[in-house]
Amino acid sequence: MRKPGKKKLIEFYTWMTKIRKTEEKLMEVFSNGEILGFLHVSIGQEAAPVGICAHLSDLDYIATTHRGHGHAIAKGIDLKYAMAELFGKKEGFCMGRSGSMHLADKKHGVMGANGIVGGGIPIATGAAFAARYQKTDQVAVATFGEGATGEGAFHEALNFAAIKKLPIVYVCENNGWAEFSPQSIHMPIKDVISRATAYNMPAVQVSNDVLEIYEAAGKAIERARMGGGPTLLEIKCDRWYGHYVGDAQKYRGKEAVEKAMGKDCLLNFEATLLADKVLQKKDIEKIGVQVQSEIDEAVDFARECPFPDPSEMMNGLYI
Amino acid sequence: MKDIRYIFAIKEAMEEEMERDENVFLIGEDVGIAGGSFGASRGLYDKFGPERVVDTPISELGFTSIAAGAASCGLRPIVEIMFMDFVTCCMDSIVNQIAKMRYMFGNQYSVPIVVRMPEGGGLNAGPQHSQCLEAWFAHVPGLKVVMASTPYDVKGLLKSSIRDDNPVIFIENKTLHAMKGSIPEEDFTIPLGKADIKREGSDVTIVTASRMVHESLKAADVLAEEGISVEVIDLMTIQPWDRETVFNSIGKTHRLVTAHEAVKQFGFGAEISAVVAEEMLDELDAPIVRVGAPFVPASYSLEKFYVPGADDVKNAVRKTMERSF
Q1: What is the CATH architecture assignment of A6-305?
Q2: Predicted local confidence at residue A132, as pLDDT
Q3: Under 8 Å CB-to-CB from A271, ≥6 apart: which residues?
Q4: CA–CA distance, A14 with A210 (Å, rounded to integer)
């Protein structure tokens, strides 16, 4: 596979910045009380969605998790309507019915974030089944955390996909925390990739580096597209904030949180791009301003949209 | 017309719909090479091949959600759950995912899926192979729940369910699998959401479904000799159920008995009774009586005492005839 050129690298950086700044903005408006329910942000984990979705077209599928804003953004979701959904507004992709935890955009192949840990893994597998059935070259991606690998849904989906050689890539973002429990409490093994052995499935582990992820995901997606079957890809990363916004992480310790925040995939990538003279300081600032204005516009749009009318609640339960 | 067994009527419905629409496929444990645990898909694997008659691992949650994912990408899966009891392994798939996908995602995705399963006693198979859990699914917004009592009904209702764009929980009954009945040679369907009056009568309305339709008809024969005229309504679709047919019947008989094989407590009979009480209590001449299994797990050795039958229905009808407001 060709190494990404300058244009691609700048794209990666822009996408990662967009995810980071969107999540930061969401934390702000959530604290204001403008967003209801729960909010799970992916700050510190921006490399994975960008490295993976760079290989996917709108026709390819992705099923994501409750920490899924990054994947939807990297898959190309229109930020204005995504933001309207997060604000619970009628113009949102899901008519204000889903919010953050079920954000979906069929046009871009986003099959939905999922409020059930591991719930999207077999659903993405079903999309891969459909691609095979319909004889297309579409590929499906399921993303999840290492906590989801304790669920039956994970094992049942991988078993099925391996037997049927389905075109899917299973992407585990292992951030070391299943809600409030560290990996040592819920996994008897160090690496999620070990689980692939039971399904005779190739598995690759990479660090939280967008270029490493891009390369590994590229091979796995190409393999799936060519009929070679599924791959399990594990990305070792860190969760900066708590399980949800507002989680004080008392179970974790301040030092551990600071250490996690010290490993910043966006800042590291920025340093590489500066060192390699792909970008200069002023380019970085320009990208930041552009991205921020797009996000602010989306928030303004969402704020102005109306909430769904209560009279519409019963619409569309059955067709 | 031709005579056919219930189980083969199921096979014919699936076969004809698979011929009619290439997006229809069957998935489940032993449905392919083995032809289905109860023989519902015999011959389909040879006819349609492994791509459309898909054998799976013993993995109900996995393959049901996989079918849901496939349905949301344009296919029309028929999922076979070997025994209804096993559907409890895929409650996340059905309750959290399938039932909610279209509504929750603002109508972006449709999930045209049929999840078929046989319920009930009759095999002395004990507590984990005999349950009737239709009320669980009727309680979840977004699902349709269908129960078929005859070969004609099972074929017509299954074909409609496969063509329906909503998720359908399609409940068969193990004791009915061998039942013979007459069906047309040509293509036919039965609309979902419509009940069928299996016997007309004027004194008491029995609202029932599946195997208990036959027990109610047996009871009605005996009661007729006693001078009690019973109307037997086969709901066929439990959710959404046909209020009009039920209300019209009660408007005529002014007495209601509900009968299902599931345990009485919180069964669909409770919902029918509650709605009738809400909407037309003033039309009733006597308290409603419900028939259902006792509130314990299905019994292995005492199954014939556990499963409700014609005698229970007769007693219920007599009870409501003896009383009046």
Answers
A1: 3-Layer(aba) Sandwich (3.40)
A2: 98
A3: none
A4: 12
| A269 pLDDT more than 90 | yes
What residue type is B266 in one-letter code?
A: F
Pick the residue from chain A with its C-alpha nearest to B52: A133
Q: Using an 8 Å Cβ cutoff, are A234 and A172 in contact? A: yes
Q: How many angstroms separate the CA atoms of B271 and A119, rounded?
A: 31
Q: Tokens representing A218? A: 């590229």
CATH of domain B196-322: 3.40.50.920
Q: What is the pLDDT of residues A117-172, one digit of tens each?
A: 999 999 999 999 999 999 999 999 999 999 999 999 999 999 999 999 999 999 99
Amino acid letter, residue A248: A
Q: Is the ipTM of this complex over 0.90?
A: yes
CATH code reported for the domain at B2-183: 3.40.50.970
Q: Which amino acid is at B128?
A: Q
Q: What is the pLDDT of residue A147?
A: 96
* CA–CA distance, A278 with B154 (Å, rounded to integer): 67
Residue A120 to residue A123: CA distance in whole angstroms:
5
Helix (H) or strand (E) holding B293: strand B289-293
Give the model's pLDDT for residue A256. 87
Give the closest residue to B235 by CA, choosing from B249, B221, B223. B249
Probe site for chain B from A129, A154, A307 (most B CB atoms < 10 A): A129
Where are the CATH 3.40.50.970 domain residues in chain B?
Answer: 2-183
List the domain boundaries for chain A. Answer: 6-305
Q: Does B142 touch chain A (CB under 8 A)?
A: yes
Ranges under pLDDT 50 in chain B:
none
Contact B57 A159 (CB under 8 A): yes
| A272 alpha-carbon distance from chain centroid | 23
Least Cα distance to B148 among B208, B98, B91, B188 occurs for B208
To the query of whether residue B139 is one of the catalytic residues in this protein, the response is: no
Minimal C-alpha gap between A213 and chain B (Å): 26
